[in-house]
Amino acid sequence: MTQPQREALFDLLTLSIYADAHISLTEERLLESAFIAEGWDSEYPKSLFIDESFARAREMAESDDSIFDYINERAQVFTTKTAQKEVLGVVKGILKSDGETPEENEFYSLLVQALPKAK
Description:
Layout: H1 3-16, H2 25-38, H3 46-60, H4 64-75, H5 81-96, H6 102-114
Helix pairs in contact: 1-2, 1-3, 1-4, 1-5, 2-5, 4-6, 5-6
């Protein structure tokens, strides 16, 4: 995964945990594991990116239109079927970790639409 793809994935993951307006400890731990597993290859400090990613997610989560636009914007960097499937798998794993809600299912459906090659 390229660094821009890692950053987009992290942004999608942080947004995904705001989908049901409830951040569980399980989701938080899995998100942290995903950040570690995907690595980081940038001069920009990872901790600063994470803080900014959460701030962006909180802002975007305020409206359905913002969520939809943000998902589509961040999904554009995943151009291959393999990359799109990986993103869906990682996000689905986090959403399922504490039980899925209708809001999380809707978020996931929007993400699937934004990643058409993964179907």
